Amino acid sequence: CVLCGRTDDCPEKYGEKRTYVEYNLTVHYYCLLMSSGIWQRGEEDEGVDGFLITDIRKEVNRAAKLTCNICKKKGASIGCVAPKCKRSYHFPCGIQKECIFQFMEDFRSYCWEHKPVQKFPDRESRGTSQCTICLDLVEQLPVYTVLKSPCCKNAWFHRECLQYQALSAGIFFFRCTVCNNKDKFQKEMLRMGIHIPEKDASWELEENAYQDLLQCYQHCDIKRCLCKKGRDYNEPDSKWEIKRCQCCGSRGTHLACSSMKSWEQNWECMECRSIFAKSGSYSKQKKRSLATSEKTDGTTCLLEEPSPKCPRQSPGSQRNFLLQSPKIMCQNNLPPCSHLELPASNRVTMSLSPLTSNRNWSLRKKHLRQQRREVSNILKELKLQVNTKTTRLNINAENIWNSALKGFRQRNFSPTNTIEIKFTNCKDRSKADTSAASKHRFFQLLMLHLQNSSLFEGSSAKNLSLDFQAVKENLYFEAGKMIAVSLVHGGPSPGFFSKTLFNCLVYGPENVKPALEDVADVDVAQTIKMIKYANSLSSLQSTIHNCYEFLAAAGCLRPVTALCDKNMLVNDILIHHVIKRIISPLESFRQGLKTLGVLEKMQMHPDAFSSILCHKPERLSAETVCDLFTIHASSDVNKVEGAEFWMGYLQDVESGESVVTLEDILLFVTGSFSIPPIGFVPEPTIKFLHIRYPTGNRLLNCLELPITKTYEQFKNKMEFTIRNTLRAERQ
């Protein structure tokens, strides 16, 4: 190198070593950047990254007259910028002597006496902690080789680790590895001499680095695959779409084969669930996740494979139809339709007898329905606060969180105003997509985003997480406010709260005892298990010694003189990690839920609200859908035959003999694929008319059905219209 005189080729320390044969010139990039007497006077493509060759020659001549205060050789091109300091040195010598070089603004250099140092409070304890980059121990001392994060109290790093990280991540991805802060962290690291190159991350520049990730597993592994076109058949946006295991991604299932809805995310294969079960982190509560809503025909959880006791019925076979007679409002009094006969090829025997294979489960579902009816009445009472003044929210479905946040924070937004949703990124929305349907869709997307956001942690039953940036931006308050507004304005409930989170909101965190299942962090959970299942005092003390730093940081260190002391220690750790650690987000979240008086009602009716906040909506059944609609018919229409075809079709859909699902039918009519906790306003109705194809009037929640001569015609018209309408909307 013409500036430092060394032959070393070490890009991490001295920058890229470049040789220009035409100019007979070799130079280290950092030596050139930090030289005191040279500036970039050219364009980026001139000379050496804007440093003109003539200027480099002049700088070499200038440095040749200066002696390095470290190695005592000539060519010291870098000088300390401190006033009255006359020290000069080569760049490699400065690194060796622990000088600071600031790769920003004027590219200043400070000698070993005048270099900037990080300030630490005198009362701050000294010790060791773990460098979160290399995971080795680092001494908490104000020395050159150690740097402290400016944004996290107990985050310490090796200088060398930070420099390697900065060179790899670049200016766009270099940030605190603990709290993810970027601006404050980068500013401090630049001040302390870390070079952050203005480039993209190294992993983004590698060609075809993510090529393997583009290969998706497409195979149904359920023991009894129901798809007639084979296990490898995959049709997106239908019941035959293949969903992969959320844990391993190497197993799959058709939606229909596991009785899943198209929007459900949490499907896990048998192998992964067995691993979770053995590790103890897959509790019974977690098994009833988003994808494990109960079927109403008494079968097992939806994550299990379909029971061989419930085979698909052929169209010609008889089966019990678990529907009560539909509500029929007509001009003439008719006898109740308790038994209706279909054409011979599609005969359905209807029975009002419920399944009694699992009496306890039936009673539990009945109790859950009663609680949800109670919640519906409470929410309707709260909705009386909503006035007719309209607030429009412009929503981008592809960026649902930011656009919702912007809308909720706008000056004219009020929870008591009627909300109108306008999707800005959908140019050709269907005319049937009314304001009510758009509102349903908006709140559904918003609740789904919250479930998968960094504000919550856990697989299915979730607790609040600790996100410092979210606390700073008051996002926990906004999340609570959005959930309250969704409940009162006819949107869905979140349905993913853990019992612990719900109890903290209702009874206060000081009255809640968390369980091991509430710990989402695998390492923390493993530490708690080691303490909990220690079988001797020596093994317990050894475990405590191994995790001493963790216990000290959590404030859970206590004298252990007997094996029974482990129970108190486990309890302390659980309370710290699950409750005390997130006390600030929890309080902010509670304040948000006070919107429109929702939290107050939760505290007055905890059992009722637990049914919608801690449980997903009950899976639709033919009985539920039939009960939901009231049939209207004029005097010139055969009401009995129309109801007969309608109920027969619902049974076909429920048993899998249709290309659509019960959720598709509800979406076609109301714009929502689940029944919101508050219910539908107006209540869904059915009209039988002399029309060619069925029509879903989402403004009135009215399903207009065609009058046909045969059941086959009725079924074909229903499937053709519903499937094509919903497919067009998705596109």
From TrEMBL:
Keywords: Metal-binding, Nucleus, Transferase, Ubl conjugation pathway, Zinc, Zinc-finger. Residues 1-115 form the PHD-type domain. It comes from the Eukaryota. The keyword rRNA processing does not apply. The keyword Cell membrane does not apply. One of its GO terms (cellular component) is nucleus. It holds the Pfam family zf-HC5HC2H. This is G2/M phase-specific E3 ubiquitin-protein ligase. Pathway: Protein modification; protein ubiquitination.
